[in-house]
Amino acid sequence: MKISYLDLDLIKRDGPFDEFKQDVSVVSVELKSGEQFHQILLMYPNEIIGMKGMSSLPFAVKEVNKVFQTKDDLSTRADMSWVFR
Which range has the worst mean pLDDT, 21-25, 35-39, 62-66? Predict the structure, then answer.
């Protein structure tokens, strides 16, 4: 996975996010189209370092309109099914 960064203004507007390890959160995003993607590993403050089951992001980061956390995001811990940068 290539290094990707979410818009810092989105992070400031929608955060802060609960962390499961120091400086690492699991988040979801909503695109301008309304489509949502979940289980994204975010390194503080805005670097995407992995997405569960994906070797590349299935969306363009410039299309992200909202960053949030679901109950599933908050209860998820990274394991071997995660693909890291």
Answer: 21-25
Confidence of residue 21 (pLDDT cuts 50, 70, 90): confident
CA–centroid distance for 73 within its chain: 9
CB neighbour burial string for 49-68, b if at least 16 within 10 angstroms, e if fewer: bbbbeeeebebeeeebeebe
Closest by CA to 19, choosing from 82, 80, 84, 76, is: 76
Strands 82-84 and 64-68: unpaired
Q: Is residue 34 left, alpha or beta, with left meaning phi > 0 and alpha meaning psi from -120 to 50?
A: left
